From TrEMBL, chains A, B, C:
Family assignment from sequence similarity: Belongs to the UPF0047 family.
Protein name (record): Secondary thiamine-phosphate synthase enzyme
Organism: Muricoccus pecuniae
Gene3D superfamilies in the record: YjbQ-like
Listed Pfam families: YjbQ
Length: 142, 142, 142
């Protein structure tokens, strides 16, 4: 049984979904672990992880529309916590409603994502950020 | 340290919760691993996983009522992505709000679910589907 | 490769967020495992886990306000399942929208939480409860 850990920086430009599937698959396939468990951890409370369809960009637009309606930015709703602007508290709420972590079984050196599944970092702040993911892999070479 | 992987197909008839607790517990108890970690991965973006009370069917009905109000089907709300019908995009949003993956510690060859906890596959589409879960178990025989 | 498991009881006084970060970090640092994966499992369907900012208490108040608006207690909305009172079914829905489980990579005997990340037990019932978490750690001493 072996382990590998990697820190990945994802630069974001604005609120929205950033696909990290290929970066993650590439790193997993470079390790000498064919069967195991991959864990992705997002080190933030105003950005999060999401597994979504990677075929249609419309899915991402509709998803963002939904979250904007569900968690209105400050001004439309009054938040106590608004130190960093009207998108500060909504970012924390959106992160609470999505995922900070994913663990995916690995077979043949590849996480068992379904045909349409992509892994996304969801930036919830409106300004650019440098986001950090930690990847952990445990398993065996065979 | 050992590992085991299994692919499980769950046929669904319509939108709703399908309990998979017993299938999962049975598979875990059949492996030669008493102490470890079980991971369940759902290979879809329009179906997901949910841990819920397995005593009262009313809980499942109320939960479905809640999600139907929170994420209205197309027609009531306009979605860009509606290739597969009015339940297509709502299914992706419901999946984003629930879980694609669960990891549960295993003691005495049994995932440590609480007394009232059941594991459900949540079908978010209105038509029947064949859904696939991947189970991964890592641990030791003692 | 080694494993360790621990059961932790968290007494709650009322609805709200209870920080468990330090308890969890202390237990991890006491194990002889420097590199690995920590999993936290919540054995309930009316309490859950949340990763949130641990700097500002306003974040927790705004978060609770949000969930109270999103999932109104019985009386404002009619639920079938109300055996244990108007906060019974809302507790199940809030748990469904947050996390029952977290898995965090461990480096240098410490889960790789970001600077502002704290781990909270979210009590969704209005009365006091004794909640149980199961901690599982797998990894190596080096």
């Amino acid at each position: 049984m072996k382990q590998a850990i990697n820190h990945v920086v994802v630069p974001t430009r604005a609120r929205g979904l950033y696909e990290v599937t290929h970066q993650i698959l590439d790193w997993v396939s470079d390790q000498d672990i064919r069967t195991g468990l991959l864990t992705v951890w997002c080190r933030h409370t105003s950005a999060s992880l999401l597994v979504q369809e990677n075929a249609s960009p419309d899915v991402r637009t509709d998803l963002e529309d939904f979250f904007r309606r569900l968690v209105p930015d400050g001004g439309q709703v009054r938040y106590r916590h608004d130190d960093e602007g009207p998108d500060d508290m909504p970012a924390h709420i959106r992160a609470a409603l999505t995922q900070t972590q994913l663990s995916i079984p690995v077979e043949n050196a590849r996480p068992v994502l379904g045909t349409w599944q992509g892994i996304y970092l969801y930036e919830h702040r409106t300004s650019p950020h440098r986001r950090e993911l930690v990847l952990h892999l445990i398993g065996t070479p065979a």
